[in-house]
Each structure stands twice: as C-alpha cells, then as structure tokens.
Amino acid sequence: MDTSALFNIGYGLYVLTTRHNDIDNGCIVNTVTQVTSNPLQIAVTVNKGNYTHELIMNSCVFNVSILTTETPMFVFEHFGFQSGRTVNKFANCEAEHRAVNGVLYIPKYTNAFLACKVNNSIDFKTHTMFIADVLDAQVLSDKPSVTYDYYQNHIKPKPQTPKPSNGKRRWECKVCGYIYEGDFLPDDIECPLCKHGKEEFVEIFDAETPKQSPITTNMNQIKLTDNIFYVGVNDRRTDLFENHMELPNGVSYNSYLIVDEKVALIDPVEAGFIEEYLFKVKSVLQGRKVDYLIINHDEPDHSSSIAAVLREWPEAQVVGNAKTFAPLEAFYGPIENKKVVAEGETLSLGTHTLQFFMVPMVHWPESMVTYEQANGIVFSNDAFGGFGALNGGIFDDQVNLAFYEDDMRRYYANIVGKMAMQALKAIEKLGGLEIKMIAPSHGLVWRSNPAWVIGKYTQWSKHEGEEGVVIVYGSMHGNTGVMADIVARGAAEAGIKEVKVYDVAKTEISFIMSDIWKYKGVIIGACAHYANMFPNMNLLTHEINEFKPKSKCFGIFGGMSWSGGGVKTLAKYAEEGQWNLVAENVEVKGAPIREEDWDKLYNLGKTVAEAILKV
Ligand code: FEO
C-alpha cells in the first residue's frame, strides 16, 4: 500500500478555536467536513494530544476559521507548532472577535468562520471526531481558501537541512518540517511541534550523510519484526559438517540483528562467510555500530568470525555467561570488552529487553539461549536447529516442512541427541516463557508454528521411536548383504512397512544414526575381519554407544569364514551399550545357502518386528 495516495485528498487548512473556563486556545487542523446541510452540521477530527481537544471535550463549542492562500507561515507556526498548554496563543490579540458561542475566531488571513456547538462525538482511540451544529457562519473575504497542497508548495519554507553532527541520522516530519536527530527513530516518537507520529517521519540523506552501503535499505533485509533482522548465511560449499557429517543440502549459519537504541548482534557466523555476513549486517545498520555481540554458543561454526566482527565494531561488548569466555579466549585470544550475564539476567536495548537462560550441553557446556521479551522470540542457538541451507524460505510458513524434516532429525540425532535429557530440560525451561517465535542458529526460523518443532524435539528427546526397522550391514564380499535382505524379508512379512537397509560402507554414518533415532528397531550385521568385525562398522557401533538411543529393539547377525569375529565384536558393543537384544544372535558360515541359516535370519527379522509391534 502506498499511503502517499492519501496526500492526494484535497484538504483545506483551518484554525480550530475554542474556549473553556476563560481559556482561549486554537490549533491548525485539516479535517473539517460538512456532513449535512439540514440540519447544518460539520465534523472535525482532533488529535487527543492537542490542548484544543481537551478544551472542546469540556466546552463543547468551537469555531472554524478558514485560512486563505495569503496566510503567512508564522500563522501556521503560531497555531500549529506550539502548545496552548505552555503558550497563551491569544495573549497579544489586538482585538477580540467572538462569535455567538463566545469563542474567538480569526479575522485576518481568513475568508469565513463557522461558529459551532458539539452534538455528538466518535472516539477513534488516538483522535476524536466532533460533530457539531453550525450556530453561525460569516464570510470575511473573497480570497481563495488555502489547501494543504498549496501550503506545502507555496507557504511552507523548504527545509534547511542542518549539517550532520557526530554522525547522527536525521528524520524530517513531513507535516511540519521538524527534524529529529539520533541513532534511530523511536517507535513512539511524537513530533513536538505538530504531534504526528513515526509514520510521518522520513529519513534525510544528503551528500554529507552518505549511506554506508551501495545497496538500498530494503535489500537483504529479512525481518522477524520491524527492528529484528535475519542476517545469516548459507553454506553449500562445505562437504562435511564438523568434518565428518555430509551436507548434501548444505547448512545455514543463522545470525540476528536487533536495532534499537542499542544494537545487538546475536551469534556471528562461520568465518569463511565473513564478507557476505558483514555486508548484510552493515546494509541493515546503515552506519550504526554494534553495541552488543551476544555469544549464545562458543562452537566455531558460529564464533569463528568473532575477531573480524570486533575489528569492525571494536567498542562492542561481548555478552556471554560464566562459562563462555574461557573456551572463547582459548580459541581466539583475549577478549577485552566482556559482559558476563547470569541465569535470568536482562539486558535492555531500549524498547527491546533481552533475557538469558542457560541450557548447558545443548550443545556445549556454555550454551545459553537469549529471549527477547517484547516479541516473545527465543534465539535458541543449536536447539531447534537443522541441517539444510535455507533456499529462499527463511520462515517455517514459507517452506514445505517435509522437505526439511529428515535434515532436522539428522542434525538432532548427531549433534543434540547425545544430550537428549538436557535438551528435554531446556524445552521444559523454555516452557515457562511466552514463545511466539523460535530463531535457532541453523535452519528455519519458526514464526508461525513453533509448536511443530518443539513437538518434534520433544518426541526425539523422549526417544519416542516410530514403527520401523533399520538394518545396517558391513560386508566384504556381499554375503552379509544377502543376509540383510533375508532379515528384512522377515521383518516386512511380520508387518513392518518401513524397513531401511543400509550398507555401512556406502552410507555416511549420520544418515544411519538419524534413522536409528527415528525407528524402534535396529538390526546390525557384520562380517568378520581377521578376528574382529568389518572395520567401518566400528564407527557406527561406537556412535550408537556414544549417543545411546533408547527404547530400541536390537538384533545382531553376521558372517564368518574361518575364525569368526563379526558377531562376537557386535555382541561386545551390545553388552557395553546395554542394547536391548530381543532375539538370538545369528552367525552364518560362508553364504546363507542352507535352509537352517535362512530360517534363522528370517526369524531374526520377524522376532525384532514382533517385539516392535508389541511396544
Ligand atoms: Fe552450531 Fe554446536 O554449533
């Protein structure tokens, strides 16, 4: 919507006068309209902040003096740019001209006046419309009435823009020309001269105040709210996250900027993206500085650009908790300007207040989340995040969630899942806050349906598996792979519709771990390798015992040629990890070409499936 269209309505300009308890006052209005001719009634709408409004509310009488094109600027300044609360606007009247209602009218620079008595009013919250009977009306001259357009083009002086001072930004009130200087324009600003609000102010740019960036203010601005911006980056060039998890769909490093009286930058990004990142941040800030750099989490995928950010804004205070700075300084050297916050402590930025909550081990001991109180936004760092670069859609309502769910669960299972209890505690702690939006450090921003991601994280943290079986095998010459197919057949015929079979040598571990987290059944097979098992399987079993997915039904199988070792090693991992084995281990010599071996493998799948269906 282009609200400047409203400027094309043909407004006149009037002095609205009234009198109450022997106090005369008046102001400039442009809202006078005749509403009926019989009875003769007019309406005028007045800002409640005006002293004239207060007086009319009590006196119920007013006059409208219709200004002409000959009206000099000082008349507008006299009645429009000062308040009757502090100035008697009629103190130096040479002669009083009162109408029948006892109210003064303006005899000069006017062509008529209407004397009125209020018979009704409508409350518009910020304004009141007074509807009044016209008691008297007189023509005073034949000069044409002034319009708002005429005033703007012929009477109002062209603003003499003051030179910028100390790098301050400037905004001009479009109504009266008043210029406000500051770091930012407050949401609740009221023009001290004409009482109009923020919507009437426009920022002034001139040769002396160049924009800091060649781009326009709207480019690259992704808004969570009017003053909170997404300034994250996409990484589609890193092959392996933490150098071991594949990123076929990339990953995002999210960062957020809150622009208020003070500016806060929440978690920077991976250092390889610093140029793009600083470009985005500066394009929003337009020359302002970062006052606070909030570090929710020390891990280098977020913090590795901290030195570059502090080079750009060296006066910024780095905000962390008691556990933040030792690791941070171990990575990047001394940090001078530190601010340590405690559990529940707040930090005011102006109209926004940040509050900090500790969520240790989600994902590191120093992890915390930052809660923005005014809009109910949780900047949750790794919690509620996911893999997958943000492909245009930044917010949950801009994408098909099914497209991201697998990447979210894979991220959870391999990064946060080990600390499922802590994640659950963090979710419970955040449950006490009014959460309207979740803004994590990776993946989608949840502005429409944060309950969806909270529900998923709760389900995964509680180890609530779905009906299905993951069968993973390690096979040197294919025989253990054939066994996996027989096991899968038993599971499917027992009624399991989601059976996933993986070759551990082909599929990167994080994908397998994600499905292990997802499903209730896990059947693992390994051939022997010397006296142990197929080597790649060691990494998977290590990860299972490290992350400890719970409430699973496990099974074990494997092949051997001479001494065995696959099943024996798997059994050792099972004992160490306290796997819930629900069927007899199956070990096959050579290939599964004997009926009894085939039956054992088939029954392994069937037994695990039946156990799942009973849970
Ligand atoms: Fe995204 Fe634990 O860092």
Short recap of the structure:
The protein has about 625 residues and is α+β, with helices and mostly antiparallel strands. It is built from 15 helices and 33 strands.
Keywords summarizing the entry:
elongated, 615 residues, binds MU-OXO-diiron, seven-stranded antiparallel β-sheet, alpha+beta
Task: Report the count of strand segments.
Answer: 33
The residue-averaged pLDDT reads 91
Low-confidence parts = 207-217
Could you describe the largest sheet, including whether it forms a barrel?
7 strands, antiparallel
Overall radius of gyration: 36 Å
- Strand content is 25-35%
First-residue to last-residue Cα separation = 57 Å
Helix/strand/pairing category: alpha+beta
Order of strands across the widest beta sheet?
Answer: 2-1-5-6-7-4-3
Bound molecules: MU-OXO-diiron
Tell me the number of helical segments per DSSP (H or I, 4 or more residues long).
15
Instruction: Name the overall outline.
Output: elongated
Q: Helical content, roughly? A: 25-40%
Provide structural commentary.
The protein is an alpha+beta fold and 615 residues long. It contains 15 helices and 33 strands. The strands form eight sheets. Strands 2-1-5-6-7-4-3 form a seven-stranded antiparallel β-sheet. It has a seven-stranded mixed β-sheet with strand order 11-12-17-18-19-20-21, covered by helices on one side. Strands 22-23-24-25-26 form a five-stranded mixed β-sheet, with no helix packed on it. Helix 9 packs antiparallel against helix 10 and helix 13 runs parallel beside helix 14. About 2% of the residues have low confidence. The chain binds MU-OXO-diiron. MU-OXO-diiron binds next to helix 5.
